[in-house]
């Protein structure tokens, strides 16, 4: 247990990087499964820009979202922490303003920070305690949730109407930010979170036409991914045009596994909302030409919580204060000095329900209200209570579905409403679709993994109860 806690409490260690601190561009899809990529074998999708980066950069083949739904995973990127630590249990739950965020830390090192696209971690009005601006972003044009064609977005608190495909709109906003930073020779963090391919799927006619042989709803779904691929390609090309690509980290992933019925998990069990691999495994790509000259494939388990400590190591930033982290610095894996992940990965879906965040309605309401000279102050839309610590949860009961990935092994812990616990163990290297339970066949491995998972769950519950914020 002590070793686990020391690992969780470890800060980002100094690392021997000879380049100047890079620009950082973090791009995320909304509901794109591991198999929803041509480079991962999809029989119909056209993703030429993603395919090119998969061939030329670093491809992660075992990359996991920190949670099987959107808001928690996005919170893990912002904090380096598993989302239950700060009460972001499911979609529509928020950050806590007490958290230390990635843009806040990078700003102390001189980075200018921008957020563009889906936020879903709090309000997008100026008065929200967990707006992008309140969470460390200098510039932001954001939506409270997913958004589609011709979206209304919040430009640092002011609702504005935009025209076009949502991914094109998001990319253009990010490109404008990148150009401005380039012109002013400022180092930057750009967080670009697309609203696609979340339902309801609404693709441009030109993008649907590429899939004319498919049913209409499939045309829209595939068309959204193709539009997102095009938008991502524009960002990547702009970095080259501005001569920024050499020393810019461009990192792409999705926020959870595949959508049921229409998405592709690449044959893994489960889908969005589930702790099986189909709900957690996501496509992920990275490039930083200044440090990584040759393409490579990373097969070790990684997760979105790793983005925070890895980016800090890349930027040579050692914060004076950090809460316990769940992510690890991936640079040793990326550079090849280590072959295995330094610590296991924990997951915990507590089954607490999500909170409705109807982005289109809320943004249209805000647009109309501000046109009348009004500023709505609905506490729900502002997420006014985001910093409130609720009643303490037990530190010996962990309802819902949790899991522990240690190398190729994955242990599941499933606790029902009565407190009864079922366990499942899988060897992901031989059984990636989690179909053959090996619990009884591993009498030595099981107790060690059970103890490690339970220790981790206890530490998460303590964080949830606010212990990390005590001086």
UniProtKB/TrEMBL annotation:
Query: What name is this protein filed under?
Result: Sulfatase-like hydrolase/transferase
Query: Where does the signal sequence lie?
Result: 1-16
What the record says about family reads: Belongs to the sulfatase family.
Provide an example Pfam family for this protein.
Sulfatase
Source species, domain of life = Bacteria
> What keyword terms does UniProt attach to this protein?
Calcium, Hydrolase, Metal-binding, Signal
| InterPro entries per record | Alkaline_phosphatase_core_sf, Sulfatase, Sulfatase_CS, Sulfatase_N
PANTHER family with a match to the protein in the record: ARYLSULFATASE FAMILY MEMBER (PTHR42693), ENDO-4-O-SULFATASE (PTHR42693:SF53)
Q: Which SUPFAM superfamilies match?
A: Alkaline phosphatase-like (SSF53649)
Under the heading Gene3D superfamilies, the entry gives:
3.30.1120.10, Alkaline Phosphatase, subunit A (3.40.720.10)
Which part of the chain is the Sulfatase N-terminal domain?
A: 22-316
